[in-house]
Amino acid sequence: MKIIVCVKQVPDTNEVKIDPVKGTLIREGVPSILNPDDKNALEEALALKDKNPEVHVTVVTMGPPQADEMLRECLAMGADEAILLSDRAFAGADTWATSNTLAAAVRKIGHYDIIFAGRQAIDGDTAQVGPQLAERLGIPQVTYVQQFEIQGEDILVQRALEDGYELIKVKAPVLLTAIKELNHPRYMSVGGIYDAFREKEVKVWTLADLDVQKQEVGLDASPTQVKRSFTPEPKGKGIMLKGSTKEMVEQLVGSLKQKHVI
Amino acid sequence: MNFTLSKEQEMVRKMVREFTLREVAGIAAEIDETERFPKENVEKMGRYGMMGMIVPKVYGGAEADEVAYAITVEELSRACGTTGVICSAHTSLACWPILKYGTEEQKQKFLIPLAKGEKIGAFGLTEPNAGTDAAGQQTTAVAEGEEWVLNGTKIFITNGGEADTYVIFAMTDKSKGVKGISAFIVEKGTPGFSIGKKEKKMGIRGSATTELIFENCRIPKENLLGQAGKGFGIAMGTLDGGRIGIAAQALGIAQGALDETIKYIQQREQFGRPIGKFQALQFEIADMETRVNAARWLVYNAAWRKSKGLSYGKEAAMAKLFASETAMYVTTKAVQLHGGYGYTQDYPVERMMRDAKITEIYEGTSEVQRMVISAATIK
């Protein structure tokens, strides 16, 4: 079985601040990490490999050369192979252009059974790249996967909803996006770290390596433009009403009238 | 001259730090309070390669280098001195001598499970009457047919009772004195080998420190480690490396106490401002930080020399001496800067101060380190 895991290097948002004037993220001095949901995606692939050593796990990312470090971390956790899609032409990509580039890479990899991706990256929070990639490849997708199981030819997944879950049966090839409830990611291992540098390599693919045109990737192919980044104002504390139904309705109506809502 | 760590070493630090924050820090106070050996974490450390750092892959190890090993003990000890010494004693005092002096059969049988963390190792040299004067071994080993018969008592053995594989020193020929000492590998469960009193200690209370009792304990001939009569050299060679591990533990304890203190003085307010705004305290931090950094480079230098095959006995002794004294200095200051709160168990610095003290004593007291350093310096 061949598994592809899509990962992204993101700034650790626990450490990130927003420039109050420009409204953009201040990235200087902020450590970069493997996107948390992507770690869950990788863990699920590695758990399959634990059960069956013939499972082959390839991690793919699009990013600057510095993303090499994150890919080595994925190798140190146990992935077999890492591919870095890196080219000046890919820079400035929105989700549309990113998924196009990733799709070209997946087609170049060729055969695969499952693509795991994180639900969303903590820097953009769009949750679009996974689903777009599935659409471009013409394969089924299940997002928000909180439980995963292989039953013979079928893949059985629980898709988390706000108030429950859907139980979905799919067949490979399929793209699944992971949420943190799916599993507890392992740490890198010491031996894995040394192997990641000693025995494994990070392949770098540029635009020239992919069957995609320059105008289909990067900033030029990105219809989205970020106008402003900001932290939404936190909502005020809610009020819990007490008493009988009648009393609570009276309090509610009174309060709404007072605020001129009704 | 290059003071930068390799990418592998940096990544090991990142990984052990993450492991320590998530798995170790949260139970450090509890295992201290209840004197509980943190089995669950030792098992995980084995799974992630932290119990076989310096052992080659062919023997089940991670085949990392000595600096990465020192970093691992340092990072574990930053939150928990107990966890640091479990790793250090296992690695430096059990894995290393078997790797260095063991036969291929001994490595296959004993080293592989130790390096994989499936088994825990310990080292038995100290006796009631053979502490700093380690040559005064009273434990005896007598050859009888295809076996060695051991009799005697070891004390203060780190990982005692929890360990499965013990490197034990005994007198095989009293007439030869120091040259009559030999090293053996003894397995837990061997008839005649029992665990005696468990010490109640001031610090590193989650670490098991026990007596080992040998009463007509028969072990196979092939469990002799190295040549008969070469045991004292094996013990001293092992301790040279062990000191790097303890120095790294001391360094970690010092760094942990410094981290806690920096956090505290920025939060604690007196006279209308955080106490960290007072220059007297800022200068204390400067002195603590300077000593911690000096200790770190002594430790990494000794570890680096060991991994490069250079002599390291004197450097390891200097690292251990300075790092352990730094740990005492920094943790004592840390308690002082925390004021009354620092004296209570509501903050971790009192535990760190208790843990720090042992680093000036075990694997050679500070006095022994000064003997080693002066002997290597005054020629």
From TrEMBL, chain A:
The highest taxon in the source lineage is Bacteria
Family recorded in the similarity comment: Belongs to the ETF beta-subunit/FixA family.
Question: What Pfam families does this protein's entry cite?
Answer: ETF
Report the source organism: Geosporobacter subterraneus DSM 17957
> What is a single molecular function from GO for this protein?
electron transfer activity
Query: Matching SMART domains, A to Z?
Result: ETF (SM00893)
Residue ranges of domain Electron transfer flavoprotein alpha/beta-subunit N-terminal in the record: 22-214
Cofactor dependence is on:
AMP
Q: What is this protein called?
A: Electron transfer flavoprotein small subunit
TrEMBL record, chain B:
Q: Which residues form the Acyl-CoA dehydrogenase/oxidase N-terminal domain?
A: 6-118
Residues forming coiled coils = none
The record's listing under SUPFAM superfamilies reads: Acyl-CoA dehydrogenase C-terminal domain-like, Acyl-CoA dehydrogenase NM domain-like
The cofactor named in the record is: FAD
Q: Provide the alphabetized UniProt keywords.
A: FAD, Flavoprotein, Oxidoreductase
Any one Gene Ontology MF annotation carried by this entry is: acyl-CoA dehydrogenase activity
Looking at the record, the residues that make up the Acyl-CoA dehydrogenase/oxidase C-terminal domain are 229-376
Instruction: Tell me the ranges covered by the Acyl-CoA oxidase/dehydrogenase middle domain, including all copies.
Output: 122-217
Question: Is Mitochondrion given among the entry's keywords?
Answer: no
Give the matching InterPro entries: Acyl-CoA_DH_CS (IPR006089), Acyl-CoA_Oxase/DH_mid-dom (IPR006091), Acyl-CoA_Oxase/DH_mid-dom_sf (IPR046373), AcylCo_DH-like_C (IPR036250), AcylCo_DH/oxidase_C (IPR009075), AcylCoA_DH/ox_N (IPR013786), AcylCoA_DH/ox_N_sf (IPR037069), AcylCoA_DH/oxidase_NM_dom_sf (IPR009100)
Keyword check for Flavoprotein = yes
Please give the family membership noted in the entry.
Belongs to the acyl-CoA dehydrogenase family.
Q: What is this protein called?
A: Butyryl-CoA dehydrogenase
